[in-house]
Batch of 4 targets.
Target 1
Amino acid sequence: MSIIVEFFAAPDDASAALVLRTGPRRAFESLSFGNFDPGEAVVEWECLFAGASFDQLVEADEPRLVAGQDDDGCVVFAISPCLSAALAEAERSELKDAAVAWSFQRAEDGEVIDPEIAEAILSDLAALVSSARRQGQNVYCWVA
């Protein structure tokens, strides 16, 4: 389980990778969360928003690792273009529905995420993605 989860906007993979050791707060606009697995979450969100299958996304190596080792150290990964587009275009009601569905999925696995908190996470992330896209940037996630 992650201690720190920060989604952030950056111009490219190379810029995003530079935050591996220190985190993105000093360099980029970011959102900070905690206590959920963001790698699993972005795959679940893409399934909810875009109708992709979990297994297909995992087989396609989503989310795409940008920096670090996935061995309990810090990592930076990219939010897929498909998920970015879906979040940027999502209506408030779609974000709420996805948040409730995600909350229920996590509960089935024994992880408690309040639906209101899930909605806040998805709404804030959608706003970050929309802002990043307007600036020609991508959204990444730093996990420590």
Target 2
Amino acid sequence: MNFQDRTAVVTGGSRGIGLAIAKKLAEGGANIAILYVGDESEGLNAKAELEQYGTKVEQYFCNVADFAASKEVVDKVIADFGGIDYLINNAGITRDKLVLNMEESDFDAVINVNLKGTFNMIKHTYKHFMKKRFGRIVSTSSIVGLIGNAGQANYAASKAGIIGMTKSVARELAGRGVTVNAVAPGYIGTDMTNALSDKVKETMKAQIPAKRIGTPEDVANVVAFLCSDEAAYVTGEVIRVDGGLAI
């Protein structure tokens, strides 16, 4: 897939699934703007990894839950790169607890980053994509947003909200040459799942028809397709990347 002379913004792009997506797009020639909230060294390390592909890469510290900060960083990326072609909404957090024990702050934090953060980034790139009459927006939902999960009412609500937002914005922007889609990963091998015990991992794998935990690259491959010219007629879709877990 060819992404030459395109620019991608990847939120939560300094590690895990976000970094894998950034790598896949950079491999195809895209310039990359990484948004992150971790330690600065994390952003710099990701930048160094991506620069091996020979494209322009910059990292920006940004809490996407902050409406004003999101606008500021979008304006900065457009100024630095000359425009944005792909918006990948990948930033997300968890605060897992049963509703019985969940604090209001646990619910608000997850909704603010996962759902409102996605809205903020779409809102601030919306006019830009309309004027270009081109754009690809891909947001990371989750199978939890489709089927729910005990102890993740806040996370499930945020990811289900991303699905509704994706379908709504897809209807709004389809006539402007902008596609809006989402991916719904299942169990993916990230820092969070890698920290689990072997016993828990085996239990997880036993639930998956494909009999393996997915990789960040599995998700990145689907996101790259949705950004490609080959997917120009695909919009409003939610593609599960779960090895069949939510069939």
Target 3
Amino acid sequence: MGERLVILGAGGHGRALIELARDLPEMEPVGLIDAAPRAHAMLGLPILGDEAVLPGLLASGIRLACVAIGDPAARLAAAARLEALGFSLPALVHPSAIRARSASIGPGTVVLPRAVLGALATVGRLAIVNTGAILEHDTVVGEAAHIGPGAVLAGGVRIGARTLVGAGAACRPYVAVGADAVIGTGAAVVEDLADGARVGGVPARPIGGPLG
């Protein structure tokens, strides 16, 4: 039996983290925290209440927590509240992920099934490396960034804090993307992007409307 873990957030990302934690022999997910749950349980795991129950859970010996919130600002704020209470936020890496020995992963980060982290890849705290994403050698992913399913970061790419790289998007080698940017689904980034950029298409160009 692994160390007990509570999951903050009972949405779609919460379902993904339940399955991830259950695949880790060192973890035992015991329940979810959500202020407005749609049910009493999710995938057989109870929803324990809102954040008011957290001090009691900590007192009962549950020391580990993870944040299942997609929005990066909300994820960072929730993590800060958990850490202030005394919870630890471990990195959760699925057993099917391929991780080079020299790759580093920050606390609170989640790496989902079949992701690949190459030599000297660096992933900051509270980032999400989603299913099947590829981070090639020397990539740097900033704090609370989200690399979407099937996205590909070629060697030396730098992704700023809180940036979203959409599903199936790709970045050419050594591109630098600023903080708080959004790269749309399937986009091909071939040049550097500034903080706050919103791009889509092939090659990626600025876009003002909704991004896929």
Target 4
Amino acid sequence: MSEEPRHLALYTAALTHPAIDNHAHPLLRSSARFALPFEGVISEAGGDVALKGDARYTLACFRATRQLARLFGLGEEEEDVSWEDVKRHRDRMDYEELCGVCFGGAGVEVVLMDDGLGGVEEMGEGLRWHDRFVKGRTRRIVRVEVEAEKIMKELFDLDIAADGEHWETAGGMEEAFRALFRGRLKECAVDPDVAGFKSIVCYRTGLDVQVAGHPERRYWLLLYEVYKTYQESGTVRLANKPLNDYVVAVTLEIAAEYKKPVQFHTGLGDNDINLMKASPAHLQNAIKAFPSTTFVLLHSSYPYTREAGYLTAVYPNVYLDFGEVFPCVSGDGQRSIIRQVLELSPTNKIMWSSDGHWWPESYYLGSLQAREALYEVLSEQVGRNELTERQAVGIIENALYNTAARLYALNG
């Protein structure tokens, strides 16, 4: 923004107020910094053609190129700097210096980190490593499907070593899984490093979860199917709807008991998602069934943002995260999404996140573009006398920091 801001107090709050990043992922280790195509910073597309070819022709990429050129000091005439120029420059930088530059420009003080992203164990940095770039302590968001898969693998390995004795009675493996999964979630809930839980059921079987009747239902045959697949492939992937729904139901129950928010991936994602089942509207029955559990709808639920806004307006236990669309969506699209968020959502129930992952630039772009979009949308409304500048500043302070600090009990 080269022109003088019309509402200086609002502009200052939007661009400089400290932020809590309420949903992000680990960065790549230095030794793995070139393991993935950098185009992933501006696109969720999969495959070389869509990601490394098509993604660079999006408005999101054109905009990110200019913003990163300014960040890296690649000249005043940013229009002469290409995406490849940006890549070559950042590839030559010392890795920790690169991370410091990006976080220094992001204004993030605390990160809530989902460390269950595929590939983190092989390529990602640990939770505490990230503390060097932020003022506060990085907290963990526990991805519950991954915890369930770890427990299954532990049980299956024990059973294979014991020649299948857990399957001698129909309920043996099931009872062990139920007890261990509940125990694992409770351990996480009392861990001071854990801020909340997260479900990726949207990816696995869709958001149309059925949360009734799970204590009485028997799952041993379904577990046995997962067991046989593990014997054949060596991998455990929880992608069976009754089992996935059970994992969500138990999570919602324990989260209510320990007052931990549960984040749900909704809407925007890669091509592994069934988009028809990615609308948060599918969660309505679960929201009603667990009124004491806090639901956080991630990623603006894009393109189902209005459905998400409706849920925040009518259910006191629903909050909306407006993240990931920065920087994957164009500037016009981002402003439209913020407007849709504000159509119905109470402004004390919206929170920002970067969905930063792998590359430090994803944190920087996620912060800068969200701040710019908030300012532009709210300044329009102040200009139309629909709210005061002081009210608009309050909205920004809540969205960037205060609401997340309260919801995740970060000041306690």
